[in-house]
Amino acid sequence: MVETGHFALVLAFAMALVQSVVPLFGARTGNERMMAVGGPVAVAGFALTALSFAALTMAYVQSDFSVANVWENSHSLKPMLYKVTGTWGNHEGSMLLWVLILTLFGALVAVFGSNLPATLRANVLAVQGWIGAAFLLFILVTSNPFVRIIDPPIEGRDLNPILQDIGLAVHPPMLYLGYVGFSVCFSFAVAALIEGRIDAAWARWVRPWTLAAWMFLTGGIAMGSYWAYYELGWGGFWFWDPVENASFMPWLAGTALLHSAIVMEKRSALKIWTLLLAILTFSLSLLGTFLVRSGVLTSVHAFATDPSRGVFILCILTLFIGGSLALFALRAGSLAAGGVFHPISREGALVLNNLFLTTATATVLVGTLYPLVLEAITGDKISVGAPFFNLTFGPLMAPLLVVVPFGPVLAWKRGDLYGAGQRLMAAFAGALLAVLVVMMFVDGASVFAALGIGLAVWLILGALTDLALKSGFGSVSGHVMLHRLVGLPKSVFGTALAHFGVGLTTLGLVGVLSFEQEKILAMRPGETMEIAGYTLLFDGLTPARGPNYTEERGRFELIDAHGEAESELVSSKRFYTARQMPTTEAGIKTIWPSQLYVSLGDPTADDGVVVRVWWKPLVTLIWTGGLVMMIGGAVSLMDRRLRVGAPSRRAHRAAEKPVSGLPI
Amino acid sequence: MLAGGPWLFIENTMLFWIVAALLTFGASLAVLLPLTSRPKADSTDAHDLEVYRDQLAEIDRDAARGLIGDAEAEQARAEIARRILRLNAGGQSATAPRFAGAGRAIGAAAVLAVPLISWGVYATIGSPGNPSQPLEQRLEQNPAESSVEELVARAEAHLAANPSDGRGWDVLAPIYLRTGRSAEAVTAYRNAIRLEGATADREAGLGEAIMSAGGGIVSAEAQAAFERALALEAGHAKARYYLAVALAQEGRTAEAQAAWRALADGLPEGSPWREAVEQAIAAAGSRLTAGESGEGAGPSQEDIDQAAEMPAADRTAMIETMVAGLDERLRQNPQDPEGWSRLVRSYMVLGKPDQAKDALDRGLKALGPATEEGKKFAEFAATLGVAATE
Fold it and tell me: What sequence ranges are listed for the domain Cytochrome c assembly protein (chain A) (predicted)?
């Protein structure tokens, strides 16, 4: 089974090579047969990669230590879930997952792209083939997960304990679906450049792909942030750490792409800019993969320990980013530019959005790469952390968030700013009220807190206002309004939900940054402490044993006003025997939307233990917001208008129309 | 099963090649079929027109819902109509296939590339003869073909599932002890005693495991285990041997020697213990002749070996005390060439060359540099890299 997987991987590489060459040649020469090769080959390539991945997963499930990768990253006593997720909890396996998702998207383009113009489809698949071939070669040459051990050991070295968590089951696959999803946008962009024309179907195709990729990336980042928050045991949710930035940059650029793709679809404007953004977004995804996978991040010197991997990904990076940008420089001039529009219009608002988002992306890029480059050149180690980003990224985002509610209420082509302002009056009044309430009743000293909460309320109410206006609030009766609301296109709901989610995340961020409380103290069993009006009673430490670790569990009781135990929190210090590695499991009690966070420190001499307790007001909203954004993306994705009409679907669509039509 | 081993291996390899061939065949078909089937006629313009029609329909829907005003709808319709007109004006006709010959060559090359690349690359990096080895299957295979490590792992897996199988613990315990996993050996012996009852062998084994886990020191706990073994079987050789070791470790060398002597007399012919006991008697004897009480005799080989199993700090402390005792004794009774040699060596082992040199000088002075003993002593010191001051 293992070797079958290995062979399937090699075969997938051969298929990727065919996919890179034959459809492209067919498109150049107008040979339909050769263009048609792309589809079946992409599907077969996906099937083979999936078989290969299944074989590796099987080796993990069965603890087949004759596979070096399994021996290095698994243990026979590990719970089944972590055996499966351990498949991608390491360099080789995660690269295989990356390629699996890439080929999956290639196959989806092949299956659902039957109504695309044949040359566009062939070129898109060929570009996907190039990416696939490059990464499959990378896996086979430098990171092969199927390397065997002739005389296999009887027990594995276990997975890094920090990764033995449900987070590993969700976070990397979602993040990769996001990263790699942008490869489809990239392929469409490069295909358009190769053809020298942008089809009308182009934007309609690129937008759902962007939306899907963006949705997964949002979920992946939010999940990763929450994982770091509860697993690392020091209560932070975002560290501006280069690995996080590596996923955040494609997200920012992808958000910009999402918005410019709307302009392109609706108004045929911003075509060339959208093309460039599609290239840049995937380039940032590749950069992220490079930063995380080459080992350059832990230290620039990791190149020396395994130079082949870093150099190989760097070559792929240079080839794809350099090549696509060169192609862009060469061909962009010959593409037909789009229509014109007034600066005060929805297009104008979206351009503003793009300006802010791309500048913010550039800021993060500088903050991430500058220390790495400096270290590589001079050997000096500097750390660019939160202060830099607070000074640069924050001031860029604040004005963007202020203008977000204006976008959806402005008309296309020629908008009326005064009118839009009037329509948003209620939201503005609500935000002002929130500022005053915070100033007067919560914390008069912190201008940041008051304005921040005001901004969040402005975003939330702005999103609701958009829905109310579109359903005719104030001009029609309640009954009709409800009908109209239900009949609104799903993409309108998607927009409103996504903007609502941004508001929630902002609210959570401001809440936790302004009103967080922290206490560090030594506690002995039976002692109590108070934080934010809650009383915690420390019951003591008890030893316990897990399948592949031992732990000291610290039990705390949350006491209510009457002195009764209301609920309990358990925080523990684990020791994983195979890796000889300690971890801290935080005890978290959610009192929605806030959380009480308890983390155990070292024991003290008088048989107490150091305990760190945080009160984190509104903290869950940070991730709830991300989830709402994701739902917004999904709702928008379900909007059937996004599908490209195929000639054969014509009759079906016509029949469907009266059903979805409104009784007004 | 034993005979089935190699056959199974061949079958696996055969099966792998058959699967590989089928996969290659399927993959080649995915390339070949589109190349040989008749293509559909397709025009880019038709696709664009379709998109524009959809956009018109969408405007109608939006207008019907009141999302956009009539004037705006009219404007948008006009814009899309302009796009459609532009499309028709372009009048792009489908390009006729060019390079038909080159196309056929590339098509053929592509179909051939699939098997050639895959089999070529796999042949260099794959290990087709290496079957999958799931852990469970490895643990179930014939014991005769397994390594000790595998057998232990199998027994462990069995005991993890049936922790109350006393016989399993009984089998595993001495293996643990022999492979140096003393802590596990202690647990295994305890479990065996708890489940199967105490026997002299098990108790003595437990004592040995505790001693081994404690760095070779016969602790009170280990001694108790040996005593229980003796209570169960009066002449138990292992228990008697180690109880004597305990005496020796307490410094009661003479009593230890007597105990070993008694043990040696009672041992049957060909007993595996005879050699160990005789060595112990000899070592104790030399220690007794070296110093009246055994106290301050300096570290013997046995002591050093034992010390090697102790924690680093304890080990150094133990050796230093012994060396200091030896040094003191030699100052009072310097006519002991063997003692001087041991002292020089000890100082070198402790990494104190200056003191070693000092000891050499003092020893030569006491023994006389020209005497036979003095010369031998100087030679011995020279082999350790210590030279006397002229």
Answer: 88-294
